[in-house]
């Protein structure tokens, strides 16, 4: 197996004191970010990105992805102990996790959550290890038309499969694409949509937008609510951990099903949030007595956590292999890769072999170390919530401002961040989804370049997107996904019209 | 039977009325957002029209993609505007209540002032003022605790970014005094 040899080499790159300690720091920061209300995985990574600018790319990405794993772990802590989901993907964990804590089984619930998270991401990492090189070498055959077709497919699947109102998804996506186009046009060198402002020549930085949209707006939203909270403090004893682990094999069906759902939804842009709910609902539907769910069933913790973590991890597969992020946080990691001059996509597996395999190896190591860390430090993190929000909020604001400034050393970006904060707040409240915006902003330039390069190559003939079976089938699939909601509505109507005729 | 676990309870110090009148309905805010988006689409669309939205011999000109994106954006916003005006204008829930709005401003206004202060005083002094002020006036936390937290946090940030990681931040007169 070539993959195994490369993976072992990846481990060898990682095992230095410096990298390992960065990993620990990343994980702790990640759990911290996951526990705090008003900070989440995406903006945690975005804010801390400037810290890594002076590191070498491998150390930097290892630390950033560890923040991401940490945030995935951390979301479960507040869900179970306080009934407050630290992250949207841990909402489903509260359904059974909090009742368990109320019954005095907080330690069991936490162990179950962490262990199943670990299993979910392990499955996803195995998938990445064996699938990513294959996909990447297949994608090496892609030219600009194929790449544009894949980008187009990503955008269309967001519109077609997203649960929000279609026009809101489209607004969010076109807005992202437009902002990505601000500044210098990479092909002709012409300036676009700058209206003479020299600060806009560089374009709108994607990370600045993310920090504003997720960080500042989240603070505004959190302030709106009243901030009283009540919950349980818990320490996890080794005895409890072993007990839960002994019982675990009994639930292998749930674990396997949730892992599969998570991997699938992570690779397609469905995301960890959808995966956790789907994992929970399916576990409930297939159970012999579904009525006991929501009252403290341990499967109710296993199912959503496994799915959320599997999906959060497998979202990195399309990012590494194709350069298309499967989630918001993956999009930010992608933005990070571009800062270091690495171009995510199939060529990464050829040109930067060491780097890719070190990242994959860090996924294994990060999850194992992460499991140990969260199991031992739960009481510490639970007590973070004792710190009043009035002290946490300004610190988050300062961190956001530092993050936004450091990306390009521009004060203009700090103001831009504030503007995006207000936009994000309003958009969240009126139901315009932010994920398509993020994705469009990070993919905008690449997809436009791919489009125009293929147009130049084909002499302006749109039929190039159906010129061979590969690009043709991707483009067709994209169009089908785009029109899917329309088609299903028509079928529904037709069905309703036909039914009375039969009787 | 496991021993009863210690509870963590955090009370919100800020008193708030439960029923407070709405400042605006969601439908109204949505309509305003759509109108703004249409205006934005028109403005950007005009700029792209000027830079060339046509199809040259070798493919699209530089304004081509953004121009049609503006068209799609305007179309989707127009649809949303119509939808909200015709179907959901009545029976819309509140966007923010007066009480919530006051709390949002409590954090937005200090953030705005902080950004302003950063330009003159540098980010570290500004953050010290923001944290201490916010903790004291919004969180009603004792002066000494607020100041101590703020000073420690600003120092920690300074040493992390400017000293340890070489990420340079905007600085003001105070840092200049110490030779940075």
Task: Please specify the SSE layout and strand pairing.
The complex is a heterodimer of chains A (503) and B (180).
Chain A: H1 2-14, H2 17-35, H3 41-48, H4 57-82, H5 91-102, H6 106-139, H7 144-161, H8 166-181, E1 183-184, E2 191-192, H9 206-224, E3 229-232, H10 238-247, H11 252-267, H12 271-286, H13 299-314, H14 316-322, H15 328-339, H16 348-351, H17 353-382, H18 389-408, H19 411-430, H20 435-458, H21 469-502
Chain B: E1 7-10, E2 22-25, H1 26-50, E3 55-56, E4 59-60, H2 64-87, E5 94-97, H3 98-121, H4 123-138, H5 143-164, H6 173-177
Antiparallel strand pairs in B: 2-5, 3-4
Helix pairs in contact in B: 1-2, 3-4, 4-5
Summary keywords:
heterodimer, A: two-stranded antiparallel sheet, 3 strands, 74% helix, globular, B: 180 residues, 2 domains, two-stranded antiparallel ribbon, flat
Description:
Chain A has 503 residues and is an all-alpha fold. Chain A has one domain. In chain A, 74% of the residues lie in helices and 2% in strands. Chain A is built from 21 helices and three strands. Chain A has a two-stranded antiparallel sheet. In chain A, β1 and β2 form a beta hairpin. The mean pLDDT of chain A is 81. Chain B has 180 residues and is mostly helical. Chain B folds into two domains: 74 residues; 81 residues, no CATH class. In chain B, 64% of the residues lie in helices and 9% in strands. A two-stranded antiparallel sheet of chain B has the order 2-5. The N terminus of chain B is likely disordered. Chains A and B meet through α8, β2, α9, β3 and α18 of A and β1, α1, β3, β4 and α2 of B. β3 of chain A pairs antiparallel with β1 of chain B.
């Amino acid at each position: 197996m070539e993959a195994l040899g490369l993976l072992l080499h990846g481990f060898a790159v990682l095992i230095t004191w410096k990298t390992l300690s960065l990993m620990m720091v990343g994980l702790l920061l990640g759990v911290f970010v996951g526990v705090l209300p008003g900070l989440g995985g995406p903006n945690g990574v975005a804010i801390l990105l400037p810290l890594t600018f002076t590191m070498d790319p491998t150390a930097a990405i290892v630390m950033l992805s560890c923040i991401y794993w940490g945030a995935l772990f951390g979301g479960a802590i507040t869900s179970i102990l306080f009934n407050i989901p630290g992250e949207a993907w841990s909402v489903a964990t509260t359904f059974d996790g909090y009742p368990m804590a109320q019954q005095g089984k907080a330690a069991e619930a936490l162990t179950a959550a962490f262990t199943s998270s670990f299993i979910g991401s392990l499955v996803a990492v195995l998938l990445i290890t064996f699938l990513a090189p294959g996909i990447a070498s297949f994608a090496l055959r892609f030219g600009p038309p194929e790449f544009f077709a894949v980008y187009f497919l990503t955008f269309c699947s967001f519109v077609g499969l997203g649960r929000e109102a279609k026009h809101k998804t489209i607004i969010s996506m076109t807005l992202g694409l437009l902002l990505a186009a601000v500044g210098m046009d990479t092909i002709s060198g012409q300036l676009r949509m700058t209206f003479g402002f020299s600060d806009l020549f560089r374009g709108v930085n994607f990370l600045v937008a993310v920090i504003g949209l997720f960080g500042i707006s989240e603070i505004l939203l959190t302030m709106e609510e009243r901030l009283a909270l009540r919950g349980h403090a818990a320490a996890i004893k080794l005895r409890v951990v072993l007990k839960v682990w002994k019982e675990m094999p009994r639930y292998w069906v749930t674990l396997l099903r949730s892992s599969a759902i998570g991997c699938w939804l992570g690779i397609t842009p469905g995301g960890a949030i959808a995966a956790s709910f789907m994992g929970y609902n399916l576990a409930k539907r297939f159970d012999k007595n579904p009525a006991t769910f929501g009252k403290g069933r341990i499967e109710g913790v296993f199912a959503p956590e496994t799915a959320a973590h599997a999906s959060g991890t497998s979202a990195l597969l399309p990012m590494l292999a194709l350069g298309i992020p499967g989630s918001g946080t993956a999009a930010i990691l992608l933005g990070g890769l571009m800062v270091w001059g690495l171009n995510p996509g199939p060529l990464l597996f050829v040109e930067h072999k060491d780097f890719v395999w070190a990242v994959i190896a860090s996924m294994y190591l990060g999850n194992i170390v992460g499991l140990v860390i969260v199991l031992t430090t739960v009481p510490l993190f639970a007590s973070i919530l004792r710190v009043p929000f009035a002290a946490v909020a300004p610190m988050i604001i300062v961190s956001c401002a530092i993050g936004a400034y450091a990306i390009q050393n521009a004060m203009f970006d700090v103001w831009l961040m504030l503007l995006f904060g207000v936009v994000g707040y309003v958009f969240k409240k009126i139901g315009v989804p932010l994920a398509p915006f993020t994705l469009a902003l990070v993919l905008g330039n690449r997809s436009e370049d791919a489009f125009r390069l293929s147009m130049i190559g084909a002499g302006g003939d749109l039929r190039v997107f159906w010129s061979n079976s590969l690009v043709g089938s991707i483009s067709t699939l994209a169009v089908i996904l785009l029109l899917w909601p329309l088609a299903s509505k028509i079928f529904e109507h037709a069905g309703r019209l036909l039914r009375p005729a039969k009787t | 039977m496991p021993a009863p676990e210690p509870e963590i309870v955090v009370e919100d110090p800020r008193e708030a009325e439960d029923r407070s009148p709405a400042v605006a309905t969601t439908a109204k805010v949505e309509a305003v957002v759509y109108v703004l988006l249409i205006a934005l689409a028109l403005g950007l669309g005009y700029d792209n029209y000027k830079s060339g939205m046509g199809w040259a011999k070798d493919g699209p000109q530089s304004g081509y993609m953004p121009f049609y994106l503006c068209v799609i954006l305007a179309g989707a916003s127009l649809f949303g505007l119509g939808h909200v005006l015709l179907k959901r204008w009545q029976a819309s829930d509140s966007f923010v209540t007066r009480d919530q709005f006051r709390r949002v401003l409590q954090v937005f206004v200090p953030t705005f002032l902080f950004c302003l202060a950063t330009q003159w005083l540098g980010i570290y002094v500004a953050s010290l003022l923001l944290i201490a002020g916010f903790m004291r006036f919004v969180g009603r936390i004792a002066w000494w605790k607020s100041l101590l937290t703020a000073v420690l946090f600003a120092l920690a940030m300074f040493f992390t970014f400017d000293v340890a990681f070489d990420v340079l931040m905007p600085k003001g007169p105070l840092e200049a005094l110490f030779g940075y």
